[in-house]
Each structure stands twice: as structure tokens, then as C-alpha cells.
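Usage

Read records sequentially. Each one opens with the input sequence:
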Amino acid sequence: MRTISQVAELANISTRTLQYYDEIGLLKPSELTKSSYRLYDEEALQKLQQILFFKELGFKLKEIKEILQKPDFDRIKAFKSQKELLLLKRNRIDRLIQLLSRLEKGEQCMSFKEFDLSDYITALENFKNNSTDDVIKYWGSIENFDMFIQKIKDDESKIAKLAIKQFGSIENYTEAMKHNLEHFSELMETQLTEEAKEIGEQSDILYDRLTADLSEDVSSSKIQSIVYELLQFIQKNSTSVSLGKPYINVLIDTYSNDYIKSITDSKYGKGASDYIVKAFHYYMKNNVFINN
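and closes with the structure output:
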């Protein structure tokens, strides 16, 4: 057993921090002495270690508490995920330091790679850990979602350039994507009512029209008019959705997912999903806001 002062010194935090963790139920002492002094055993120290790792990755204390209280929380699996995220963070900092070294020498550099998508990737990992049901429902499995995250990592430089072009900065892009993840269920979920079925049928008609001829150039006025009509239809029937680049990016990410792609292609024809993505990309990139 260790006293609160010994634990504070070991973890390089204050005793007040440990007292606060006790107060909010995040980390309770293993036992109290007759004089009400807090004592911590090895299990408590391991939990504290987890908390500090999560804090280093930017998690809020409330979020950490919820994660640790999950019945299926796996400590070893959490260590692996934390290690991966910390490596991403370290690599990002290393690249920023390298860029600053070049800039202080007077070099003129405009680099996108240094301003990577680590925060967005972290948000995706958090979403996976905290919204498992949604992930499985819309991606088919955790493995499919991991493939989606890996694709973003593989295309990080390309996506970063596009994000800066469309949103002005990686930070703006990340905040927009975080908002979409926080409201993912609202954006994706529809209740199984007669009205919802009718909306689904109308949506199918629009997607049928959009993918009727996959050889047609997505930049054509005909295709872009259908994209506009489809987006207006979504806006009309989804009161919680704010249309614009952030939501269009949700659609692009959705139809880029391997699981969704297989369903879409089986429904509208092979290559339909890629065609839909290209059509949305063109619409967003060229600000094709058509007024009928």
C-alpha cells in the first residue's frame, strides 16, 4: 500500500488531484486508515496509469470515467490503442519541429503533411470505443471501421490538402468532423415509420437517377442537378442536419466505406458507390449550388 503523498510523487501529480479523482468517483483509494488517510494498492496504481494515459491523449475526466466503467473494458487492448495514438501524436510533433527548424533557417515552406489529421483520427478512435453499436450498425463490424480509419491514415497527406482547401485549416476540418461524430446517430438514424419508408423510397429514386448511367461525367449539369436535388431532399427531411461541406463529407466518408460500398454497388450496380463519391466531391469542390 502507498499513501496519497507517495502516489502523488510517483505519478508526478498533486495530492489535490488525487483527492479530486476520489471526489468525482474516478479513482477511489483502496482503503482508508483509521485516521481517514487514503491508501492505494497496485490495482489502483494501474488504474491511475490508465487515467493519465487517457488525459495525455486529450480525454476529459468524464469520458475517462465512462470508459473505465464499461463492463467490457480491456486494459491491455486500451494500452495498445493508447500506444498507437501516442505514436501518432509524437510523429506529428516531430514533423512540426522539423518544419520549424527549416522555417527558422529562413526557408520558405508551405507544407501540409506537418499539419496532419491526428486529432481527427483520435476522434474516430474515440467514436469507435464509445459508440460501438453505431459502428457495427453502419459499418458492419469494428474491423470494417478500422479499415476506414486505416484508409484515412494511408491517404492522410491528400486528405489534409483537401481539408485545408475546403475548410481553411486542419483545425476547422477536425472540428466539423468531430461535430458530425457527436451527432452521428441524429444524422444517420431514422425511425421505422410509414413516413420514413416513404422518404426512403423517394431517396432510392433519386439515387437510381444519379447512378442510371455511370459513364456520364459527374461534372455534367444533369448529374450535378440530381446531386443538388438529393441534398435538398436530405435537408427537407432531416431537421437536425445542417447542409454544407461538413455533412457532405459525412456522405462521402459513408459511401467510401467498404461495407457501405458493397451494399450500394449491389443495389445500384458495380461502381455506383465510387460514382456517388465523385459526384459529391465535384459538387463540394466546385461549390455547385444550383438554383432551380
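Summary fields computed downstream for this record:
- DSSP finds 16 helices and three strands in the chain.
- The longest helix spans residues 75-104.
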